[in-house]
Amino acid sequence: MQPGRRYVLTLSCPDQVGIVAAVSGFFAELGGWIVEADNHADQVGERFFLRHEVTAESLPFGRDELMRRFTPLAERFGMTWQITDTEHRKRVVLMVSRQEHCLYDILGRWQSGELAVDIPCVISNHTDLRDIVTWHGIPFQLVEVERDAKDAAFRRMHEIVKDAGADAVVLARYMQILPQWLCEAYPNRIINIHHSFLPSFVGARPYHQAYDRGVKLIGATCHYVTADLDAGPIIDQDVIRIDHSDTVEDYVRYGKDIEKTVLARGLRYHLEDRVLVHGRRTVVFR
Amino acid sequence: MQPGRRYVLTLSCPDQVGIVAAVSGFFAELGGWIVEADNHADQVGERFFLRHEVTAESLPFGRDELMRRFTPLAERFGMTWQITDTEHRKRVVLMVSRQEHCLYDILGRWQSGELAVDIPCVISNHTDLRDIVTWHGIPFQLVEVERDAKDAAFRRMHEIVKDAGADAVVLARYMQILPQWLCEAYPNRIINIHHSFLPSFVGARPYHQAYDRGVKLIGATCHYVTADLDAGPIIDQDVIRIDHSDTVEDYVRYGKDIEKTVLARGLRYHLEDRVLVHGRRTVVFR
Amino acid sequence: MQPGRRYVLTLSCPDQVGIVAAVSGFFAELGGWIVEADNHADQVGERFFLRHEVTAESLPFGRDELMRRFTPLAERFGMTWQITDTEHRKRVVLMVSRQEHCLYDILGRWQSGELAVDIPCVISNHTDLRDIVTWHGIPFQLVEVERDAKDAAFRRMHEIVKDAGADAVVLARYMQILPQWLCEAYPNRIINIHHSFLPSFVGARPYHQAYDRGVKLIGATCHYVTADLDAGPIIDQDVIRIDHSDTVEDYVRYGKDIEKTVLARGLRYHLEDRVLVHGRRTVVFR
Amino acid sequence: MQPGRRYVLTLSCPDQVGIVAAVSGFFAELGGWIVEADNHADQVGERFFLRHEVTAESLPFGRDELMRRFTPLAERFGMTWQITDTEHRKRVVLMVSRQEHCLYDILGRWQSGELAVDIPCVISNHTDLRDIVTWHGIPFQLVEVERDAKDAAFRRMHEIVKDAGADAVVLARYMQILPQWLCEAYPNRIINIHHSFLPSFVGARPYHQAYDRGVKLIGATCHYVTADLDAGPIIDQDVIRIDHSDTVEDYVRYGKDIEKTVLARGLRYHLEDRVLVHGRRTVVFR
């Protein structure tokens, strides 16, 4: 990401001639300096996707006025759109269970300033990671998930997330399945890291499944959570080579390294408004 | 592989103390010079796997005598074993349909001497690739597979393969499903290249399936053919990154590059007796 | 690449506000359907790069008229630019020595139609690969390079390339160093594959250098040839993992697989006008 | 690594017939259960390398007696050898400057038990990372390196490392060059992570060098520190793909992810006695 305040426009609409001209003409007329411009025309779905980063200082007014002026153009093309301001620090709620590798990785990036977000709280169903969280000055919310009282627990989480004003919820190896209504309350905002190369090995114990099948690469998948378990739109994936001498325990250990890296990449794409969802597919403007 | 004639011993047996000592002691007593030695003890299955390459010139006799002398030791440990002679040029039958990328790749390696095998013939259900095959001086066997006479066709192929004395049959993008009896006639000797990262996207049109699911990496899998379609033991796999701007046609094009590379690697491992099958898993001593 | 005739505009110019608006406005006014649009603003060099693909059928006239009309806009922004027509089949001259892996790979792609170019001839300083070339119906030009008569040989090659009307010259493991004047006669049009991960191991016997240094990955680099040996702009690179058990001979064998794949990718980017050179760097719009 | 106490034998010696037989016979006679066995015969240097893991419970005595009994055999073959006990927790001194990504990564692995070592102290020439270190209960040693008093500083470090009884010293992005005498005091025990794909871009600001050269992959190298800067034996390397749209700042950010992963892998290989040095090359038994 470049330094300096930016407005980030993302949009999608039915494809037709003249969209880029209209959007870039709109900014050119205002003297807007476009520093990153990506677009994609999906040939199958005949839908158009665009992302522009414009320097704030090149425009004579702020985000609200920019949105007001852009609205007629957006309506003309039937756009689904948003404009964000890079000075608005996004708010990310983390959810963890007992495993710390993803949490440590995110905290390290946050501490160094690489991950420039606010973390209003970390939610967990266990106390194991409480101390490292609070040492970083972040509130820790214990929400135990009892077998008989799951619904109450998830309603409590929903409240916490709502109060936190979260732009994103990250399941950093959170080991409970969210109920459908909770998934649907935050469409394309809950990010999960799955420890397999989806769609291989959905469900539980993917490394054991991978071992039994005798694959030669194992992977991890960062995706948006939907009500359909492990089937949400994929943001990023990666794999690592293993061989016959590796045990399931080795897979788990190697896997952690891919999991945290892929989760960090996916989260970054999300926070920089680089991910546009298109059915079960994503457009990721890197 | 190093130059010079070698004997290659591969074996598997129930794991116990003293196998390596017995095998290496056997060779040491004979003055046998071991130039490559690999072994693996599977902790789950409690089975032991070993591969030794011994220089022929370090032994005072040939392969037959070596096998005769090794037999008592093999019986003592309950080994499944074989000894091959690198001067015995292996025989590989290729089966193709219309796509040439894997065939060209194999012929190029063969022509240059990198792939040091005999190719007694290429079998195809189409005539498209006849000319490039015969130009290389290799007999081309057309065996059309009519919907109503599949069985006769596969019996004809079986005869050709048998007459050819094939050590391996390579399905180089051969687009027919072999019947169960034919798969079982050549256990761990028929090698297929599947154009997906198995077990994702088994069956037909895997690139279309991958596109619909929105994965970020596509792959190819080289495996032994079993009666259970696309479920045979995996020899090697690889993947390549794609993104939202790639169409299914792009997947097909990128995929060809991985397919031919992974097939060539898997075939090489097989021909050098580096692959030991263990249920649905393989031990590959690279 | 999508099917259907296209015009491909590529340009670079000093960066300023309004370039994208001007270019996309130009096409929108003509009803031009932009199916691929990429651009890049180099923050360091303050230079702007753009590539647009427009369907031919969406425009009321041909390439010549399109160029005539675009000229004033190009002059206004000080653009270096070109418009190509995908129906103009490009002409590629191959130069080889004795190693066949890159040649086989290119011929296979050409034969299958994946590589949609004309190959007016293959030039070589050896006769080894004559037969496979002529079997494909391509003229083979033997130009021996005698130690005492190098200049005459290179002048002969220059003539052949000129007569062939080559859009690109591919050094497919051609083992002679081209003289400075010849490199300069075809700026950004001679493509070489170097068998190392440049800038590591420039010069001769890179795999031996890699072995001596004990690296854990070896690579290949596809680059434009300049008078400065092995220092031309890099189009693409890749690597493969090796370990202590691999010999230099193994490196050579693995290396071939990366060489041919990276060369094919680089050549494709070049032929589709996806590569814009910027000093020693390249912008590659994939 | 499997659970359970092990003795790990590593050795190298001039290659000859019968080494494996002698070593495995030695263990077989004692009833020693070999759970991992690797060896490598270097064809160029004619040197033999071996690593065996034997379960402690399969032997009737401890490490000292094992070493006493192994000595005659070792002398017969002229071996350089050692036997370590996995119950002896190794001691690792970390050295850091200001950047936290490698430190956080190592602390996370240590906290979770994945990295089963003692960390007697962290040495730094800055105070930035003091708090996170001491929160983990690890002593923090500030040793400032003044331009005029470098020698005194390095002597102080030497004392700290000596007192700590370090099996390994890890330069986790420590930004000072160690003097020759200090490098030589700990041969093959000081591990550094270099932020380039060595031998490309030795020295300062490798990411800037990579940007200027226009490479398409950037990398990181984990190596033993020798008096010859950035030229020590390489333990592991990896790369990541970048493109024209990435700035040097992006390289730095991506680079951190490879740096910490490659350092963690290299450190693990070292701690598990998997790395044998052979001139400028390493044998790494994974």
Characterization of the model:
The structure is a homotetramer of 286-residue chains. By secondary structure, chain A is an alpha/beta fold. Chain A is 34% helix and 27% strand. Chain A has eight helices and 13 strands. In chain A, strands 7-6-5-8-9-10-11 form a seven-stranded mixed sheet, sandwiched between helices. In chain A, helix 3 packs parallel to helix 8 (248-271). The C-D interface holds C 40, 42-44, 197-201, 211-217, 219, 233-239, 243-245, 247, 278-284, 286 and D 40, 42-44, 197-201, 211-217, 219, 233-239, 243-245, 247, 278-284, 286.
Structural class of chain A: alpha/beta
Mean pLDDT of chain A: 95
Q: Which geometry of chain A do the CA atoms define?
A: globular
Note the gap between the termini of chain A. Answer: 10 Å
